[in-house]
Amino acid sequence: MKLATDERDKIAERNRRINEKLFDIVDDPTRNLIVPKPEKPAPFINFAPLQNALSKLDESCRYYDSAMRDSASASRLQSRDVQQALDTALRQVELAMITERGLPRRPWFRHQIYAPGFYTGYGVKTLPGIREAIEQHNWDEAGEQIAIVAKTLEDTAAQIDRARAVVK
Q1: Which value, in Å, is the radius of gyration of the alpha carbons in the chain?
Q2: I need a surface site. Which of 11, 17, 85, 107 has the fewest CB within 10 A?
Q3: Do 32 and 54 reside in the same domain of the chain?
Q4: pLDDT in tens, 36-88
Q5: What pLDDT is attached to residue 155?
Q6: What is the CATH number of the domain that holds 61?
Q7: Is residue 137 left, alpha or beta, with left meaning phi > 0 and alpha meaning psi from -120 to 50?
Q8: Which of 156, 162, 163 is nearest to 57 (CA)?
Q9: Are 83 and 77 in contact (CB under 8 A)?
Q10: Are residues 89 and 163 in the same domain?
Q11: CA pseudo-torsion sign 150, 154, 159, 161
């Protein structure tokens, strides 16, 4: 959300400078510089689906943590079958963060929470689909990616709930 606000402010400031002819004023006549064109103002992006999914994920994590601290759960975890079922359920949590579709322009990266950045080599970006769309001022794609990541987080929360059910 901060990145979207920063980009919106940056576009507005650059457009203000263009409209006030500041690039023309500071132009060096000995260099062949081209004054940039104004960019369409950045729209406000609806982050509500992502915020709702994060809230659900937080709730699922708190309930799971509470279940793990419960003394009745401790006795259930003595069973090898329960331990194996819990291990299986917890392995599925990470897999819930992967989509078959992958990231825009690189479907081989399927993790929706972190991946190497498109322009950063192997430098990791969190929420790469959303962040990169905002950085490229591709506002429609940012909205699409928010919906995809929100669904991914909801699936992750549901898998944590399944792990909690094993413990209970």
Answers
A1: 23
A2: 107
A3: no
A4: 899 999 999 999 999 999 999 999 999 999 999 998 888 889 999 999 999 99
A5: 98
A6: 1.20.930.40
A7: left
A8: 156
A9: yes
A10: yes
A11: positive
